[in-house]
Amino acid sequence: RASSGAAFALGGLGLFRRCTSRCCRDLSARPALPMQPARDATESPTSWPDLRAASALSALSFASLVAACLVLASAAGWDVQALVQSELRGYSWDCSVVDAVAVLLLACLVSSVAICAQPAVAVAAGSSAAIAALVKLICLGQAWRRGDSLAAAAVVLVGCVFCVLAGAEAIAAGRRLSRRLVVVRGEASRSDKLLDAEAGGRPPREVTFGRLLGLARPELPLLATATVALFFSSAAQMAMPGLVGHMVGGVIGGAAGEASDAKRRALNGAVLQLACVFVAGGFFSFVRGYLFTLAGERVVARLRRRLFSALVRQEVSFFDANTTGELMNRLASDTTVIQSAVTVNVSMGLRFGAQVVLGLVLIFAESWKLSLLMLAVVPAIVAVGVVYGRFMKRFSKRYQAALVRAADVAQECFSGIRTVRSFANEPREADRYDGAVDESFGLGRKKALAYGAFGSLIGTTGQFAVVGVLWYGGALVIAGEMSLGTLTSFLLYTVVIAGCLGGLSDLFGSLMNALGASSRVFALLDASPARPLAEGLRPERVRGQLHLSDVSFSYPARPEALVLDGVSLRIEPGSVVALCGPSGSGKSTVIGLLERWYEPTRGSITLDGVPLASIDGSWWRKQVALVAQEPVLFACSIRDNIAYGKPAAADDEVRAAASTANAEAFVDAFPRGFDTMVGERGVQLSGGQKQRIAIARALLVDPKVLLLDEATSALDSESEFVVQEAIDRLMASRTTVVIAHRLSTIRDASLICVVSKGRIVERGTHQELMAATGLYKQLTARQALGPGGGGGSGAGREAR
Ligand SMILES: Nc1ncnc2c1ncn2[C@@H]1O[C@H](COP(=O)(O)OP(=O)(O)O)[C@@H](O)[C@H]1O
Ligand SMILES: [Mg+2]
Description:
single chain, about 800 residues, alpha/beta, 6-stranded mixed β-sheet, 4-stranded antiparallel β-sheet, 27 helices, about 70% helix, about 5% strand, disordered N terminus, disordered C terminus, binds adenosine-5'-diphosphate, binds magnesium ion, ABC-type oligopeptide transporter activity, ATP hydrolysis activity, ABC1_TM_dom, transport
């Protein structure tokens, strides 16, 4: 008996050692968890979630090992109670078994916390464990002298060995962790840098459980109310097994001699009680479910609003680097993943946790032996949960990234559907989307596999607990140590507790999932633009003199390519400056700098002598209007599109602007006039119509500075004529920078600059440039000779 007991205990010990060391190693080997910032090496690592998980796991495995040993010993016929008491009497300490177990549990909790704290604490814990082992050895000697049973000695001896090993384990774990921390800190700061680069050079804040849950902070009142309801509904649920047990044992199977009438009455009473509990439970679970879901919706709505306003404030270069599909996905999908994690999961976690605690208290009150047996399955559940959680976190990042790629493909295809159609490339686009979806599907399949395996493992483990309880409890009932009713309620409690533990591990998985999905969301939230949109000077009067001095520029997305190289240009108030030159020479880039979408890499731009960089960007953009080659309209009515820059404009103003822009006639011809919807990006209008709406939009703003980027070059000569007429009215008495593809349209400009390879290579009036023999003369000659547009439009202008 002694040897088999020792073998059992040693086996359990080995399991425990494996469990703790594996869990410490695995958990701490996980790279780039949501770590605290690695700013300061003296920072305590105890707040790290994986350390918490490690401590919980080791505590649980220790506790269940002890429990399993005790139960196995008592199943093998030993009087465990007497053994434990005799051991404790060795300390001349008279206490009950429950106290002893409590002390043991406390001890293992302390040692697990020690494992996760600083190495110094671990060492302290290890040495105190060693001292405890020594004391035990002395007690053992005393027990031996008193002639206690050999079995007691064996168990106590094993306990001593175990204590020593636990101490050593604590030290080793502490060391391992502290070594890992250094590495993980390195990794964390490395990944910070990566995110840094993505977020445009600003360090993102770390994503922790705390930060994730912090999103729900404004909903605290709601959540608190919901939690109260949750406790009531859980209590109702937990009362159920007891009541059913009472019914089965006390009422239905009660004293055989009782009159069946009395029994029926008792049964009715019990059923009524049960029904009342169910109704109350139903009400409270309604309140709980409603409030938690409401809080979740509010959290996600707030998160979306914050994220959107953070995104829309980003610099233009941010949108060069991030695809629309990606940003859309962050807004739609990532936020949804976070939503449930911070509210519903908290609710479920609290509920499950409360039910587990309550259930444990209740079953311990019913039968401590059976409870210990049941607890033996806990480490298995927790271990599986931890592995699953790690997996989910890693996968959720990859899964969300795959979703982004698929969304990108779809978004690109739909917004370019005309191009796709005209190249008859629908099958290819479908294939491309297939490929992208396949990727997310492949990851989803793995997730599904993990989810299924996890669910069934947890379920089976729980059922094993039930089997164990039935086996041992059945034996107790047969031996007359336990009533049938107690066993019934115990069984039901076991089912509830096992279900809750399974649910808790499940929640852990989805929390990890949310943590994976949230890192990018938080990075975007934290990525504040280098220049706030509206900050700086707001000059009272704008004359409109612009001066570019020695401006060089390369796009942030392609820093190695110098797009503008030392451009100097003075634009006098009210003058018209034209830029021309080969495509790709950097003309539109000058416009982008004047709009302050980008800041020059070198050199400066001044407005009336004031550096543009010191002027409030939002204010400045209200003084400028841009009419681009392909105007972008919004999917709303023509009136709203014209009034986009001045939403308060009266109908008369809108009509006047449309009339000046040569748009009134065609708008009135639509059945719904100014209320006509234009479709996404204005697809329901012709190019010339769109352009005239865009000119009316610019007119309504009455800008000081007008920027025209090949405003007519996409039009046929008929509509070019009406659009050019509108533009000429728009240009009157404003500082204007005009880029023209057709040189005939810029003849009258006060200054013409020829741009080539990012430099201004010629400047002067049309006459001056024609007199010289340079690029301008070549370009004009080419256009005059060319058969198509240039000559035609020139003729159009002349005919006017
Ligand atoms: N957003 C951008 N990111 C990176 N490079 C760009 C971007 N926009 C334009 N470029 C590059 O800058 C150069 C000048 O472009 P642009 O100013 O549009 O020429 P254009 O004179 O035809 O208007 C081109 O080589 C182009 O590839
Ligand atoms: Mg251009």
